[in-house]
């Protein structure tokens, strides 16, 4: 064993439904190119009434564990900013659905879109302490903004499950990273709101501030130099944000940066929409799946969570994502399209905890949110 720790394997899941942004543009009286070119988005995933962060996260983890097995997993960390309970973690629900043993610690982490990276770093710490252990990290989110708001075309949903282990097959994470925190009200979701509130322009400048701050910290701590990084995978609230961010980084460095990876890493996120905590790792997957020449080279990973926290990791690519591109494409193609009237109806659906309710059977995934019984959320395998 080399002492290397990182991501051994990674899987993506999303929702039953999809909305074509050309349809949304037509319904909102906006030129479709604003979304397609201006934001860099084509479609957005949308959950059926019996889907949420738990069903998506558990679906991604189930597919991952069918390849890797669960041996050595003693920790399950669930990162999300669209949590479904103020106390019980989404990890506890996912633990039950996945049939993991009782000898597992299960916890949920929150700091907007950044929490997946916090979970990854915590997982690396656990594995560093005991290299026999492996940690299951799930990042899962449903991005929801108000109908007719500027954020509406940047909704979306997806989950990523990652197995963090010693001597990882996929990605070896470097020990040095750059971090940056600033107390900013750029994007937040109050406890009594089902949609995020956002100051769009401030959120974009806060993202760039965090990128440059994390970059400077990485350099100050002796991290990888620009010429040692073949490509940077970015958190993609909408894929054009990564283009803007890389331009600002290039200006900061006073050097040109290769734009080709920006296209490669956007392939999945253009069709999924924002998936908050999962978005960076979806971009990473697309980058590795789309560019086999990265094997043996170093990539950057820029994680941003509003509020705000940024972290820039670097990592050595050990292998390309065997077969994942075909799996993701099949998953994207299998989604069922929603017309705008039906999307608007579903956007308003909620299941308050003070009324027992059963959800309609819609999802084709392995797990479903069955409804509310006695104030508690009930999940079940799809029979
Ligand atoms: N053809 C081509 N491009 C067009 C166009 C057309 N017909 N019409 C407009 N555009 C371009 C605009 O020029 C603009 O591009 P530039 O920024 O490069 O100039 C782009 O389309 C968007 O247009 P607007 O700036 O007018 O868009 P908007 O104000 O309606 O909304 C937004 C944009 C602020 C990002 C909004 O979608 C939003 O609030 N989204 C949610 C917040 C967000 O995602 N923030 C990102 C950083 S925060 C973060 O990363 C955390 C997170 O996940 C939320």
Overview of the structural elements:
The chain has 383 residues and is α+β, with helices and mostly antiparallel strands. The chain folds into 2 domains: 5-170 and 323-381, Thiolase/Chalcone synthase (Peroxisomal Thiolase, Chain A, domain 1); 172-317, Peroxisomal Thiolase, Chain A, domain 1 (3-Layer(aba) Sandwich), CATH 3.40.47. Helices cover 35% and strands 26% of the residues. Strands 1, 4, 5, 6, 7, 8, 9, 12, 13 and 14 form a 10-stranded mixed β-sheet that branches. Strands 3-2-15 form a 3-stranded mixed β-sheet. A hairpin with a 2-residue loop joins strand 17 (367-373) and strand 18. It is globular, with a radius of gyration of 19 Å. The termini are far apart. 50% of the residues are buried. Bound molecules: acetoacetyl-coenzyme A (CAA). The site of acetoacetyl-coenzyme A (CAA) has 24 residues, from helix 2 and helix 6.
């Amino acid at each position: 064993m080399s002492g290397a720790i990182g991501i051994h394997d990674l899987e993506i899941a999303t929702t039953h439904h999809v909305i074509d942004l050309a349809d949304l543009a037509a319904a909102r009286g906006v030129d479709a190119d604003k979304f397609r070119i201006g934001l860099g988005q084509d479609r957005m995933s949308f959950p059926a009434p019996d889907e949420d962060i738990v069903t998506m996260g558990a679906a991604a983890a189930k597919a991952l564990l069918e390849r890797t097995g669960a041996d050595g997993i003693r920790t399950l960390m669930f990162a999300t900013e669209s949590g479904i309970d103020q106390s019980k973690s989404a990890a506890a629900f996912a633990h039950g659905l996945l049939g993991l043993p009782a000898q597992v610690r299960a916890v949920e982490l929150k700091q907007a879109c950044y929490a997946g990276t916090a979970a990854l770093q915590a997982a690396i710490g656990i594995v560093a302490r005991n290299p026999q252990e492996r940690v299951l990290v799930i990042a899962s989110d449903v991005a929801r903004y108000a109908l007719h708001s500027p954020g509406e075309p940047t909704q979306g949903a997806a989950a990523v499950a990652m197995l963090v282990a010693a001597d990882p097959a996929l990605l070896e994470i470097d020990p040095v990273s750059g971090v940056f925190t600033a107390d900013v009200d750029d994007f937040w979701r109050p406890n009594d709101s089902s949609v995020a509130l956002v100051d769009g322009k401030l959120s974009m400048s806060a993202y760039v501030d965090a990128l440059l701050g994390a970059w400077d910290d990485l350099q100050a701590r002796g991290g990888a130099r620009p010429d040692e990084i073949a490509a940077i995978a970015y958190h993609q609230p909408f894929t054009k944000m990564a283009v803007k961010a890389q331009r600002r980084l290039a200006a900061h460095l006073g050097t040109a940066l290769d734009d080709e990876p920006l296209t490669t890493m956007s392939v999945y996120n253009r069709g999924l929409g924002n998936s908050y905590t999962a978005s960076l790792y979806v971009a990473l997957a697309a980058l590795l799946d789309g560019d086999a020449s990265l094997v043996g080279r170093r990539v950057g990973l820029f994680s941003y969570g509003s509020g705000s926290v940024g972290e820039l990791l670097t990592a050595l690519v050990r292998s390309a994502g065997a077969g994942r591109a075909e799996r993701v494409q099949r998953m994207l193609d299998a989604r069922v399209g929603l017309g705008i009237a039906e999307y608007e109806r579903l956007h308003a659906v909620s299941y308050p905890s003070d009324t027992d309710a059963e959800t309609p059977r819609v999802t084709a995934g392995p797990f479903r949110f069955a409804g509310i019984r006695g104030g508690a959320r009930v999940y079940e395998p799809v029979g």
